């Protein structure tokens, strides 16, 4: 099974994209306003979406190039009942940031371990589409994202 991937262009410098993904302030601007995160390898980031929450371990931070997290804990509450509410545990989120040479950025996101065999795949695919291609892109380009906010 293939891991979930999403690749797109952002009209902003890599530094701005990196800061939006690697800092608490940035995450609050496009993903969820209710989060605790530190821009430090070996730290934990907790992201809350109402009753749903995810705890990530910050595995790698390469300024303006890559962010890599590992999911340590998850409690996923969905509109439909899920048999397993922690399918993300053990998966990796990898944000590869590449300067496109003309003042913009190409973001290649891979969620290793998120594939069609998981019950939550269709929900996650739809939400990643929103949060990455719409909210993150808008936040970095215009300063206004569409994060989860009860």
Give your account of this protein's structure.
This protein is an alpha+beta fold. The chain has a single domain (4-142), classed as Alpha-D-Glucose-1,6-Bisphosphate, Chain A, domain 4, CATH 3.30.530. It contains 3 helices and 7 strands, in the order E-H-H-E-E-E-E-E-E-H. It has a 7-stranded antiparallel β-sheet. Helix 1 crosses helix 2 (24-30). The longest helix is centred in the C-terminal third of the chain and has 22 residues, at 121-142. The protein is globular. The mean pLDDT is 97.
In short:
With 150 residues, this protein is an alpha+beta fold. The chain has helices at residues 14-22, 24-30, 121-142; strands spanning 4-10, 35-36, 44-49, 52-62, 66-75, 92-99, 105-112.
Large-scale geometry: globular
CATH topology: Alpha-D-Glucose-1,6-Bisphosphate, Chain A, domain 4
Question: How much of the polypeptide forms β-strand, as a percent range?
Answer: 25-35%
Instruction: Give me the CATH architecture, please.
Output: 2-Layer Sandwich
Structural class given helices, strands, pairing? alpha+beta
> According to CATH, what is the class?
Alpha Beta
**Topology pattern, helix = H, strand = E:** EHHEEEEEEH
| CATH homologous superfamily heading | START domain
Q: What composes the largest sheet?
A: 7 strands, antiparallel
Residue-averaged pLDDT, rounded?
97
Instruction: Report how far the terminal alpha carbons are from each other.
Output: 34 Å
Number of strands: 7
**How large, in whole angstroms, is the Cα Rg?**
14 Å
Total tally of structural domains = 1
Major sheet: arrangement of strands: 1-7-6-5-4-3-2
How many helices in DSSP terms? Answer: 3
Oligomer state of the chains in this structure: single chain
